[in-house]
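Hi P.,

Sorry for the delay on this. The queue was packed all week, but I finally got your sequence through. Input first:
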Amino acid sequence: MLLSFVAVLLAGVALGGTHPRLWRVGGAYVGGMFVTYFLLGAGLITVVSFFAQTHLPVRIMGVAVVVLGLWMLKDALFPEAGPTLGMPARFHGAVRRALAQTTPVGLFAAGGLVGLCTVPCSGAIYLGVLALLAREPLPSRLGYLLLYNVMFVLPLVAMLAVIANRRTLNRLAHWYTGRKVLAKAAVGALTVALGFVVLMTA
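Then the structure:
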């Protein structure tokens, strides 16, 4: 997701994009992803909160989050061993075509599509968060869900803020690429820990 966003921003720079245009283009992409994830979470948390009335479904979700977290660790440390969590290959062409859009509307849709396609990668930790929020009162539940999704897209907004310096953006992309395995392992470990938190609070 981060790398695809960097590609969008670099394309905007290559096209001679001005600051206002880059904010429109980048903001549309981030907005599409934010709206997609928030609506997906709002729908899922309604289902989760219904099942959260009893302990067993929440514990099953906790176990699922732990398993997915271990799977993410496996993907980071032993990527050749078995299937990996990631965007299905059949969506790669659609995502590339969507990222080729240059209008705010097109990139809003692209952000939404990339958000949906990256659910296999980021959905595990989202499921754990939803399980923890399921028993909160409705106003608190929606407030925390909104806060989570703001934090989810915050790194993209930070990248958008440094777009004025292309060298900085390139350096950021190279830094992330060189530490991709470490980042995936850290997210996997965090997901496992989150799963255990869900199990302990169920």
